[in-house]
Amino acid sequence: MHRDDTWPERAAAELRPALAAAVSHGNVPGAVAVLGRPGTALVVLTHGTLGAECGPHAPDRHTRYDLASLTKVLATWPLVGQARHAARLDLDAPIRTIDAELPPPGADLTVRQLMAHTSGLLPETNLAQYHHSGRPLAHHLCAEPLVSTPGTEHRYVDRGFILLGLLLPTVLGAPLDRLADDLWRDLGLTATAYGPLPRSPQLAPTEQRLLGAPRTWGIPHDPSAALLGGVAGHAGVFSTAADLAAFAERLLDPPDPLAAWLAAWLAESARPQAAAGPGLHRGLAWLGTGDGRALYHHGYTGTSLYLSPATGRYLVLLTNAVYHGWDRARLTPVRDLALRLVARSP
């Protein structure tokens, strides 16, 4: 690993005005970022507020945010790795080996295809149609027609990780939220949890769905996760910048042999599984740059986590951008800069 002790301060100097501009232009109410690498002092940047409901309080590294799709890499991805490490899961076996009653065509999909977003599952989530049907949701998802031949096309969909979240309890023998909680506590992540959480000035509210109604606050912004009771494989987790920084450090520099499997799992997950756009590939859950210098994942609410295994750099970016309604372009300049900073040559 290349030693680059000054990177957090240098990168923070470039990121700071971009965060301030995002707040002053009304793109986000506020933001918190943490930049670091194992063995060096981390740098914390904060701007703005959490929103009118929280008063003048500025976010900090202990403020909880709805992570949205960062749930995929903070909960489902490490649990799949844990199951694989324990020899309880074969990435390339059809998922009917987990549940023999799953119907085709989905029963023949593999965990690798689900994690690489090459399953061919329908892109529209639309779980409400199956609510209160009396049939397991995993069976509904597997019975749906596929839109492409599995393993041939990359298409980012939530359904694959929803399905993984439904299957992991069978593989590992406990409910998803308990499995995730045990994993997070083993990793020292004390503020990471599935909701619902009580509203407070240390919890960022998200979107106002109905004019005049309270904002979504302490329950998942994602409607499919909400239908699943807040516990799902694709969304539903709340966490802080401090916990995400600790998670990044444990991925990049495991503190003990018990966590060493995480670094090996990250290296395996970084290998390209499918092209995912110009200069990008999809690994197992993570997006990677074509030059191999960075891995990252975004969350719909306005959250991001960036890693550089080669240099040990990481950057956590947490916002509640959906507070103002959602326009993906709002965070594009900040997110693009964050990726460039992490992937930059020393």
How would you sum up this structure in a few lines?
The protein is an alpha+beta fold and 346 residues long. The protein is 32% helix and 13% strand. InterPro entries: Beta-lactam-related, Beta-lactam/transpept-like, Diverse_Enzym_Activities.
The appropriate CATH architecture of the largest domain is: 3-Layer(aba) Sandwich
- Number of separate structural domains: 2
CATH topology-level fold name of the largest domain = Beta-lactamase
Rg from Cα: 19 Å
How far apart are the first and last residues' alpha carbons, in Å?
11 Å
Please describe what this structure looks like.
- Residues 22-338 form the Beta-lactamase-related domain.
- This is Serine hydrolase domain-containing protein.
- It holds the Pfam family Beta-lactamase.
- Keywords: Hydrolase.
- One of its GO terms (molecular function) is hydrolase activity.
- It is a single chain.
- The chain has 346 residues and is of the alpha+beta class.
- It folds into two domains: 7-75 and 176-343, DD-peptidase/beta-lactamase superfamily (Beta-lactamase, 3-Layer(aba) Sandwich), CATH 3.40.710; 90-172, no CATH class.
- It contains ten helices and eleven strands.
- The strands form two sheets. It has an eight-stranded antiparallel beta sheet with strand order 2-1-11-10-9-8-7-6, sandwiched between helices. The protein has a three-stranded antiparallel beta sheet with strand order 3-5-4.
- Strand 1 (30-36) and strand 2 (43-48) form a beta hairpin.
- Helix 1 runs antiparallel to helix 10 (332-343) and helix 2 (71-85) packs parallel to helix 5.
- The longest helix is centred in the first third of the chain and has 18 residues, at 7-24.
- The radius of gyration is 19 Å and the shape is globular.
- The termini are close together.
